[in-house]
Structures are given as C-alpha cells and as structure tokens.
Amino acid sequence: MKPTPKHNERMANLTFASVYPHYITKVEKKGRTKEELHQVIEWLTGFDDDKIQELINRKVTFKDFFSEATLNPNAHLITGVICGYRVEEIDNPLTKQVRYLDKVVDELARGKKMENILRSE
User: Fold this and answer.
1) What whole-number distance in Å separates Cα of residue 87 and Cα of residue 61?
2) pTM of the prediction?
3) Taking the CB of residue 96, how many other CB atoms lie within 10 A of it?
C-alpha cells in the first residue's frame, strides 16, 4: 500500500497529544512501561521526558513534532509493515517518520527486546 497525498496530510495534522494516550495504553496492556515508551521515543527523536510533556501540552501536530526532533541516525534501520504500509517504501518523509514511531511502539508492545528496538548497526 502507498500512502496518498490525503493520507500524508492527515498524518501531518494529527496531534501527538491525541495519539500519545493510545501508545501508553498499547504498551501497558502488553506489560511494558511508560518509561520504556519514553526510552524508544527519546531514541528516535531525541526528546526527553520534559520535552515529551511540553509537546503534549502544546498539542503539536506531527509535522511540528518531527520538525523539532533530531531523528536518530539509525532510524533508517526501522523496516517492516505497520498499519498496512511497508515503512521503507514510504516516499513522504514526514509520513515515514510517523510510521517509524508507530513501528517502534508496536515492537515494544509486542515484547521485542529493547536492544533490538534501539537499533545500532
């Protein structure tokens, strides 16, 4: 599946604050912690706990969220299918970044080892 321009626009305008509670629920339901979630978010974006909370409070869109992020240089190692999309085949950079985040959260919830989620070449 390839994301459409409409899908890409929807992803850009979605707020991190609206998705974050779903990330928490997803990982905690599978026995992982909020701290582990923050660890994978920080690995991907460079955002610490305080910055994550600030972004939630500001209700930033994913467009602004990722414009403020310093993407991990190994983010390109995130591959596979998430929400029906093969991450490595997504052309739109922002949509790809959002799907990177979805993918690492999904891997955390599925019980993947932290050292495998926090990819190092």
Assistant:
1) 20
2) 0.93
3) 22
Domains of the chain: 5-110 (1.10.8.290)
Report how far apart the first and last C-alpha atoms of the chain are (Å, whole number). 28
Cβ contact 102:62 at 8 Å: no
- Counting every residue written for the chain, the total comes to 121
Q: 58-79: per-residue pLDDT in tens?
A: 999 999 999 999 999 999 999 9
- Mapped onto helix, strand or coil, the DSSP state of residue 94 is helix
What's the CA angle centered on 48, arms 80 and 77, to 5 degrees? 20
Give the integer Cα–Cα distance in Å for 19 and 81.
19
